Amino acid sequence: MIDFNQLLLVYAAYIIAVASPGPSNMTIMGVAMSQGRAPAIVLAFGVVTGSLSWATLAATGVAAVLATYAQALFFIKIAGGLYLLYLAYKSARSAFAKPAAQVDMQENAGGRPEYWKLYRRGLLLHLTNPKAILGWIAVMSLGLKPGAGPSTLAAIIGGCGALGIIIFCGYALLFSTAPAIRIYQGAKRYIETVLALFFGFAGIKLLLSRV
Question: What is the pTM assigned to this prediction?
């Protein structure tokens, strides 16, 4: 029997966790303004896939095992911190590159968006985030009370997955509007600098954290 009050609490906790500004949302925002709607949505689906991957592991208990062994979380933390520093480097390079020297990540030799790279980028953002593991463990602990059946588990993963798509794709749609793109084009250096500082701070903070 599904406890709908408990389920609403789970959904509320998930919304607060994923809607608040973080590396994934900031990356989606930057790609939406610089490359457009479709690339940002592809990136968003990569983030959602990473989130649901941790959700599945949390549901099977594997994530709890990872959290128990500090060494496993340590390596994930290091990978995540280094990846955020890499994103900081890319944003800084984009901010200070001369217009003629800029390379648009959106286009490859065939002039088409490199959707696989964007999807992989979003996927890695979540798979290398140890806090995503702990977050899903918390969500499962909150929603899976004694006596909860498979229907409750399905409602948690399915509902949170749908909410994730709405929120992350919402960022992609919001920041790929014409006004947002005009703002980006007029203040590209400043926006990319802010993104570089954000990713750099987040990466260093993750590397120095005890998580």
Answer: 0.82
